[in-house]
Description:
The chain is an all-alpha fold. It folds into 2 domains: about 5-90, Rna Polymerase Sigma Factor, Chain: A (Orthogonal Bundle), CATH 1.10.1740.10; about 105-180, Arc Repressor Mutant, subunit A. About 70% of the residues lie in helices and about 0% in strands. The chain has helices spanning about 10-15, 15-40, 40-60, 70-90, 105-125, 130-140, 145-150, 155-180. It starts with 8 loop residues before the first helix and ends with a helix.
Amino acid sequence: MTDPDHDLILGLRAGNEPALRALMDRRMRTVHRLAYRLLGDEFEAEDICQDTFLKFWRAAPEWREGEARILTWLCRVATNACYDRLRKSRPDLPGDMSEEPDRRDGADTTLVARQRWDALQAAMMNLPERQRAALSLRYDDALSQREAADIMGTSEKAYEALLVRGRKTLKAWMQESEHA
C-alpha cells in the first residue's frame, strides 16, 4: 500500500511546519467536505478539520508507515469526531428517556411564570438607570460586588445601596401587579 503523502512523512515526523501546511493544502478539502456532510454545519466542519490536523500533528512523530494512509487516518479521526458531536447534540429519543417521572410544570404554571417574568422585565425597565445596571450586573452577569462597583465607578457600599433600593422597588411593584 503506497501512501500518496509518503513524501511528507519525514518532514511531519520532524515537526516541519511546511510539511504540515503541504498536507493541509492537499487534504483539507477532503476532510472538510466529509465533516460538512456529516454535520451539515460549516463552522462545525471547520472545527473538526482543525482538531483533526492538530491531532495528526501531535501523532506524526510516532507515525508508522504501511499501517494506514495518512488520508485514511485523517478521515477516520474526523468521522469519529463528527459522530461524537452528533451524539452530544442529539435530542433525547424515547429509548433514551430516564425512568424518572416528568416533573415539568403544566401549561398553566408555565403561563403564570411567563406572565411574572414579563412583569419583572417591565418593572426593571422602569427602574432608574443605575439601579437597573446594578441589578443586571449582579443577576445577569453574576459579577462580584467589587467587580460590579468598579464597573459602575462607585464604592461597594454605594453599589450595595443601589441593589437594596432596586430590589425593594421591584418587590413592591411585583406585589402590586399580583394583586391588581
